Amino acid sequence: MAKSAKTKTMAKRRTTANAKLVKPSRAEAEAAVRTLIRWAGDDPDREGLLATPARVIAAYEEWYSGYGQNPRDYLQRTFEEVGGYDEIVLLRNIRFESHCEHHMAPVLGRVHVGYLPRNRVVGISKLARLVDVYAKRMQTQEKMTAEIAGCLEAVLKPFGVAVIVEAAHQCMTTRGVHKTDVTMVTSRMLGAFRDQAQTRQEFLAALGLRPGMINGDVV
Ligand SMILES: [Zn+2]
After folding, report:
1. Distance between CA atoms of 143 and 140, rounded to whole angstroms?
2. 202 CA to middle of ligand 1, Å?
3. Residue 4 C-alpha to ligand 1 middle, in angstroms?
4. Cα 208 from chain centre
5. pLDDT one-digit tens code per residue, 162-214
6. Gap from CA of 175 to ligand 1 centroid (Å)
7. Checking phi first, is residue 143 left (phi over 0); if not, alpha (psi -120 to 50) or beta?
8. What is the mean pLDDT of the chain?
9. What's the predicted TM-score (pTM) here?
10. pLDDT, tens digit (0-9, with 9 covering 90-100), for 77-129
């Protein structure tokens, strides 16, 4: 009885934002890294590796910090005064680092975000933060592209949103097929960018792209 009550308390304490998940303790996470070191063929007790599990877990806190954040929070402070501005707002080359959810290998790339404001615009740094929240999770590039566009659409309610992501996946470049020069391009076009070819082309031209150069939606 006592043991079960204690286990329950621990489980409650470790429950993360996702109610279904029980987060392991730091000691449990470090023990898992020791197991992986042994699986790789080395001795976690040799001097050079003694502090490695702690370092890996600290790195995980940074690489996967997006789970603890709500992307919508970054867009809540919007500027309502746009002075009649009704052209595309475009942010190019937002650098991101993510990890693929299939191998947990690094995915390095850039995001281009465009939107057609309806009264509300958002600070440039907020858009970059938004990208980071989604990037600092285990991802597929397709999902991340859609999530960034969907969040902007839901919070800013603009006339349209366009997101293009270009990235290199280290699970392809350093293992498996070893295709070092391949990058993947994905896109999500919503509202005016989806419905109006001219708006879409204006966005692509600003990025130096042409229709047909990109996989994904209607581009
Ligand atoms: Zn992968």
Report:
1. 5
2. 33
3. 39
4. 24
5. 999 999 999 988 888 888 888 999 999 999 999 999 999 999 999 987 666 55
6. 10
7. alpha
8. 88
9. 0.85
10. 777 766 777 889 999 999 999 999 999 999 999 999 999 998 888 888 899 99
| DSSP states along 42-63 | --TTSGGGTTHHHHHHHHHHHH
How many angstroms is it from 151 CA to the middle of ligand 1? 24
Ion ligand 1 residue ranges (Cβ < 5 Å) = 100, 102-103, 171
CA distances from 40 to 35, 37, 49 (A): 9, 5, 12
- Cα of 75 vs its chain's centroid, Å: 16
Paired strand residues for 191: 160
Active site members? 100-103, 141, 169, 171
Strand-strand pairing, 138-139 and 89-100: parallel
Residue pLDDT, tens place only, 144-163: 999 999 999 999 999 999 99
* Gap from CA of 95 to ligand 1 centroid (Å): 19
Tell me the per-residue pLDDT of 16-36, one tens digit each, with 9 for 90 and over: 556 678 999 999 999 999 999
Where does residue 80 rank: exposed (0-12), middle (13-18), buried (19+ CB within 10 A)?
Answer: exposed
Beta bridge partners of 99: 106, 138
Of all helices (H) and strands (E), which one includes residue 146? Answer: helix 141-156
Single-letter amino acid, residue 205: A
3-class DSSP state for residue 125? Answer: helix
User: How far is 152 from 91, CA to CA, in rounded Å?
Assistant: 13
Q: Up-side HSE of residue 51: CA atoms within 13 Å toward CB?
A: 4
Q: What percent of the chain has pLDDT over 70?
A: 86
